[in-house]
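Pasting as-is:
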Amino acid sequence: MNNKFLISILLVLLIPAISLAQKGIIRGTVTDAANGEALFGVNVVIEGTSTGAVTDFDGKFQINAEPGTYNVQASFVTYRTVTIEGVKVNAGEVNIIDNISLAEDVAQLGEVVVTAKAIRSTEAALLAVKRKSPNVLDGISSANFRKIGDSDAASAVKRVPGISVEGGKYVYIRGLGDRYTKSILNGVDIPGLDPDRNTLQMDIFPTGIIDNIMVTKSFTADLPADFTGGIVNIDTKEFPEEPTFDVSIGGSFNPTMHFNNNYLTYEGSNTDFLGFDNGTRANPADNFASEDIPLYGNVIGRPDSKDGQKFSSILRDFNPTLDAMRQNSFMDYSAGLSFGNQKALSGMTLGHSFSLNYKNNTRFYQDAEFGRYGLANDRSTNELEVRETQIGDYGTNEVLISAMGGLALKTANSKYKLNLLHLQNGESKAGEFEYRNRDQGANFDARQENLEYTQKGLTNILLAGEHYIDGRDWQVEWKVSPTRSSITDPDIRFTRIRDEGFDGQNLTIGSESGYPERIWRYLNEDNLASKADITRSYKFNGEDAKFKFGGGNTYKRRDYKIENYQIIPNGVEITLNPNVMFEEENLWPADENGFSGTRYEPQFVPNNTNKYDATINSSAAYASNEFAPIENLKAIIGLRTEYYTQSYTGLNQQGLLLENEQVLETFDLFPTANLVYSLAEKQNFRVGYSRTTARPSFKEASFAEILDPVSGRSFIGGFFPDENATGDVVWDGNLRPTYIDNFDLRWELFQERGQTFSLSGFYKKFTDPIEMVQYVQIAGFFQPRNVGTGEVVGAEAEFRKNLSFITPALENFSVNGNITVTQSKIEMAPNEFASRTNNAREGQVIENTREMAGQSPYILNLGMSYADYENGLDGGLFYNVQGPTLIFVGIGNRSDIYSEPFHNLNFNMNKTFGADEKMKLSVGISNILGDLREEFFQGYQAQEQVFTRYNPGRSVSVGFSYKFR
């Protein structure tokens, strides 16, 4: 690499918008109208001149031209020539011609003439890709992002039929939850900010750096086998079509949450606004090995001993704040910066892009309610009995910073890509609750204070290459992607003060109400994913065919531990202010002899069952053949094999050390067969079968116990056995992967301007499905378990239709929607069926089947959009609802828990204005109907009782962006 080339690269990186002083640029893409694939070697010229270019293997071209208005002509042997009229070129600017589509000239019809305006508004290439795809897929492209104006991937993907976005972040497909939906970035599996989720947090990706978002709903052998509902793939841009330099700011106001003087928070660190703690919440015993932490039993009565002084020093290093404070809350706000460009360099093209985004969101939930109810011992009683309730307020403040940079280099036959991504997320919580315990003999009231902070970080690198041999006959792709992610919960503080009748009298802290706790949780995970794909294009029966084969490997290693302390205020006068426990005069030793005062008891010494190291290694190989056995019929037959191992190091329930114990080992074959019959040029009928899997996560395949302090509920790892009061084993602790057989039928119709209509039917058979079940031995604990066998039968209708067929006056309006109806069934394992039978109410008939947890019986997405690109105005009204869904399975005297339908109606509008439409104003309203988030215990002929209830309120958002280039 010579100095000239190095200097050229530096200039492109340092100056994001280099332009030619006198000339302008025409850039575009040429695709095959039959299948949407890029056409290599197309001659694109300015009509009447010799000025032009030849498309590369991506179908891309660039022409440098003097300012003016031209006709651009694209021609290729055996294809009809297309002429685009009225292409305007301005000095120093780029004019993009999206999706020039060439059709074969079988009837020798000659030239096709279209206007530049018309070609910019078409989605022909994406429709052709969908029509000819071996998978059932849908998506949205960068051309749409420019027209619609959505700011991030979460906003954009909602426009794809069949997609729902949970909490503005996570994608669900066909009503199936996170376990059966998968998100990948640039075709590679990476962990998100929550590594226990299958789906990435979608709102971290600004649309300015995204090339397309594709949603695949059926399996082929080149895809990872651990999905069932579908895969969402986000492809970031390699070569920005035009120089960009965009700045955006935004704000959102929720009347019930913002500028509220009752908002709850607490004093954190001075770097919380950057998404991480600066050490203010550090564990006071961080510098000591666990065996060197002095215990109270060794220092009682000996405050002046060496261990006594060490004990006193550690105690005084605890942050003394336990009480939440009320103050005025601020509104949500955000800011973003992105730039990118591409530059031709002596036979090569260099592209770069960068984005930096900051979000700060505040939530305040008043009168939030968490409950626990159970079945009465008397089987003649149908009504559920209260076990405990918790009602109060809590506030959260969340910061999310995302930074992404990319470099791409294209030569005549190869392309290389380097992407770097870093995410930083911090969230603080503060809550005050009135807690009531009525759990079968217990009867007390208490005031509860919760203070929490969670910080998450993720750094990902992607290095990828793409090579073409013999034109496009051979294609070789490879990708290597390491990721480092971490989660730290520094100093979770939980305090419960007994206060009968909440009159502030006779305040106590004891074992029945629970001693205060201080908790530190640490998670570090390393992930290395690599894959290679080789495609051979050939002819079969005179038609295009493809043979594809390849493989990959994913290695993950997780280190996890929890260190928790009980805080015992021995001899300390308790008041409504829990901070008094850490006042100097109340800390041990509060007397000369060292027998009283607030002290700590480390629960992780000498043995910590909440500490484990685990590894996953998954190797895969596949082969797939796509060919046309007869006219109008395409077959895609493939086989994938995956060898998967998971190992665990940590203490088990009996305190025995498992040293790199292999807890899962599977070698699986995943066959897939898809048939696509072309009923007409724009109609398909699809039939498909595939076998896929859903494996337990690190957290699920463990002995960990993880508390959610706000709700008081705990997750318990799937390796813990469980038994009922009579000693019958209801779960053996043998957690296994789920296997799913998928059958799909689909009829689809494609029309102009992105209009589609489809009808689908699907059947899924689940072997050993994993569901969250309530733990019998400990109330308020929830555990992943295999629950028997299950099946889901469903039908789905999708449509996207422009309303101009009613009247031309509605040309700018369109409607889209997705309706999915499913019926699910689990054939219960014998222990669950016996448990339900033994706890049945009088007159209740227990069947050996029930509905499947996590599967909504229906999902409805409807939207009406308005798009007037001439005037830079677009917007829409979008509605989403999912039916009541079983979320936690009951067992023993625990009843089932269901989520209530949340009727979510949102509105957004975007307007571009100013010179060259460089400014954009966005307005949105979320949860227009003001619905509540609710989950309920349900019993036989019993009134529903609250499991979770809170009010998300309505939000009004305003955003502004400016394009400098």
